[in-house]
């Protein structure tokens, strides 16, 4: 039922640029009740979720994503970004960023 509720609001979650991880173990208690009403409750919780904490934006951010990031920057939730995690396409060797690529990326974001 929780998975069904999550699937129902997946598009809205993606539009808000949120990620939800649903993991239930065998010890999760069962709830008896009207499945439609319970799904509606979960759906409302997920649909109305807000982030009140700063967060890092990550997920394959690479050179060339500047316009996507600028567009995302117009969203209300973007005010809560603490930092951006850029991917390995900015690296000159494993774990070592090419400072010139990073500077160019930042400059394009500022334009």
Indicate the topology.
Elements: H1 2-8, H2 10-15, H3 35-47, E1 55-61, H4 66-72, E2 81-86, E3 91-93, E4 96-97, H5 99-110
Parallel strand pairs: 1-2
Antiparallel strand pairs: 3-4
Helix pairs in contact: 1-3, 4-5
Q: Domains counted in the coordinates: how many?
A: 2
Helix content: 40-55%
Rounded Rg = 19 Å
Largest sheet: 2 strands, parallel
Q: Proportion of β residues?
A: 15-25%
For the largest sheet, list the strands in their spatial order: 1-2
Shape: elongated
Order of helices and strands: HHHEHEEEH
Structural class: alpha+beta
Distance between the termini: 46 Å
Low-confidence stretches: none
In quaternary terms, these chains amount to: single chain
Mean pLDDT: 81
Word description of this protein:
The protein has 111 residues and is an alpha+beta fold. It has 2 domains: 2-47, no CATH class; 55-110, no CATH class. It contains 5 helices and 4 strands. The strands form 2 sheets. Strands 1-2 form a two-stranded parallel ribbon. Strand 3 and strand 4 (96-97) form a beta hairpin. Helix 1 packs across helix 3. The longest helix is centred in the middle third of the chain and has 13 residues, at 35-47. The chain is elongated and about 60 Å long.
């Amino acid at each position: 039922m929780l998975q069904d509720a999550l699937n129902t609001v997946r598009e809205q979650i993606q539009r808000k640029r949120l990620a939800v991880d649903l993991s239930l173990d065998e010890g999760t208690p069962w709830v008896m009740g009207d499945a439609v009403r319970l799904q509606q409750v979960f759906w409302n919780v997920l649909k109305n979720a807000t982030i009140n904490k700063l967060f890092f934006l990550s997920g394959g951010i690479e050179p060339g994503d500047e316009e996507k990031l600028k567009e995302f920057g117009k969203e209300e939730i973007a005010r809560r970004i603490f930092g951006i995690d850029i991917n390995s396409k900015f690296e000159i060797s494993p774990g070592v960023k090419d400072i010139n690529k990073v500077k160019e990326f930042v400059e394009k974001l500022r334009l």
